[in-house]
From TrEMBL, chains A, B:
CDD domains assigned: pyridoxal_pyridoxamine_kinase
CC per GO annotation: cytosol
Annotated protein name in UniProt: pyridoxal kinase
GO BP annotations listed: pyridoxal 5'-phosphate salvage
Sequence similarity: Belongs to the pyridoxine kinase family.
One family name in Pfam for this protein: Phos_pyr_kin
Keywords: ATP-binding, Kinase, Nucleotide-binding, Transferase
Record-linked Gene3D superfamilies: 3.40.1190.20
Amino acid sequence: MALTKENVPETKVLAIASHVCYGFVGNTMATFVMQSLGCEVAAINTVHFSNHTGYCQVKGTKTSAEDIRNLYEGLTQSYLTDFDVLLSGYAPSAAAVEAVGDIAQDLQRRAEGKPGSFFWALDPVMGDLGRLYVAEDVVPAYKKAVRHADLILPNQFETETLSGIKIANTTDLANAITSIHKTYGVPHIIVTSVQLSSLGSSTPSGLMTVIGSTVRSDGTPRLFRVDIPALECNFNGTGDMFAALTVARLREAIFAAGPSLRNTKSWVSPDDVAPTDLPLAKSTEKVLSSMHSVLLKTMESREAELATTANTIDATGLTEEQLQFREHLRRTKAAEVRVIRNVDFLRKPTVVFKAQQWAE
Amino acid sequence: MALTKENVPETKVLAIASHVCYGFVGNTMATFVMQSLGCEVAAINTVHFSNHTGYCQVKGTKTSAEDIRNLYEGLTQSYLTDFDVLLSGYAPSAAAVEAVGDIAQDLQRRAEGKPGSFFWALDPVMGDLGRLYVAEDVVPAYKKAVRHADLILPNQFETETLSGIKIANTTDLANAITSIHKTYGVPHIIVTSVQLSSLGSSTPSGLMTVIGSTVRSDGTPRLFRVDIPALECNFNGTGDMFAALTVARLREAIFAAGPSLRNTKSWVSPDDVAPTDLPLAKSTEKVLSSMHSVLLKTMESREAELATTANTIDATGLTEEQLQFREHLRRTKAAEVRVIRNVDFLRKPTVVFKAQQWAE
């Protein structure tokens, strides 16, 4: 029995993000995705919600910053902190972001003298599509935390928020990434899902682009892009899937590059490595290929579920508004990402999307 | 790409049990195990602990009965209750056990008119080895709840507690199972890990036995046994692994038996089905074969980890007692069950342990 060939190198991850009972976002998504690629995952859950907020109604509780710190103390007192990677996502308050930052720095201190033995991937969850969906004091908390991260995965709005640069065209986007490298000293950046056509690029409008960069020793970015077809569906949790897959695949790519890079602080490749040869670029190719397959399968399952559940809503006594909301719930449920039964696409992606150098 | 051949039939599970950040017990074990066999799992976590209690120290919080009810209300208000199975484990108070019982009965009401469309597997976590480790009022709460369950998975102590029969020999054990079938109307019972040799049986002392039964229409048990070699290691979470694997494999065996059984209340086989031909017996064979392989691999990994971490404890300034506790922590960590990298043994067990009829 071939037991490990589809696994990434042994990786112990501390994952700090939200938990939902039903569906797949936050740690509920990230834990399964990383586990299915062979990573050991310890999860500190920052919220305990019944479902994701895309349903527009939710029940449950948020974890206080104190409880987050307390759980981490539980790990340290029993010597359970042998993590290779911290992946942090949604934190429900500025104090919670600070707690996560302190945990990251504690793990960094424990790894001192062993460069490359610990890596922090930070998803600075603040908002999307021009709108902040966290409290305003979360922004300065992230601006402090990001200085200690090895990799951040902001979307376009979060890139604007961190860089202070409003992104109206592709030059702005490149400048924002350069600025984040310089201002915060973050060595790896991936800007998830940018629509370049809306930024005046000649890229066809049916494509979404992921832009990544690993900094050079002189502070300049090494920019690459990977284009994928945009899908006509509003999924939740895809950012969390992207981040989780990136942790596993980046670690795999770093190991493939040999022991020297793995023992380098923040896994920053030598300056002569071209943008498209970066481990981050290789990892992004695999990540997006996995995701595209899983999301296509999700769309198929969604169509099937919507057909099965059509006309199942009893409209008796419902107002038009109530009926529309029931329909919204039905469609949101049908669009839950189908990771469980499509795990082979996570484990064995066929790489169809390739990284290209990006210079604007 | 063969995507689904290792999956059990589509199964949506609501899992209510404890969550630990580090290691594998409760829902942290059960969720991954069921997901890896292809089940969709919605998890309501009854505690949020840093680690399992085998470490003898733990930090974290317990979920109140009110919060458990509230999370379930979150699911119902968004129509997210299409569960085929409820698997319930540790609940931290009598009120929490009652909340779980109410959730089970609500799901049963929703399934009314569709026999077999919902199944409750209940692990009545109360104690072990002659000792109660929950508050005393949890016992009557379980005695009420068990009446609504389709399958229970007590250990020997819990079997004694529920039946009121002190088990000193194999006849007592058989009587206790018969009594639980009759008193509580529970159709399926599995008593996990009994040492028959200690009950005066001629079974060699190196064997552990699982005893199961599905009731006949006249209330008599159909008893079967599966023997496995006892392992010289104290693992945590094996009961949760057993329960989670049983949910998936029982469902598979029920589907294999054809549509009639699947549409029968509580999936109780016709009286002419022999004990060793019961879906519960077939499922237990697969479950124990998976578990034995995973635990053997865990013992190998444990030895390797203990060798690597030998002499890593700095004894300076530690009392003998403190040093012993550090050693306890080191050994407990090394014995965490290695499910992640041994997932193929979960997915594709080679059945080596066979069910035998058991009549004492």
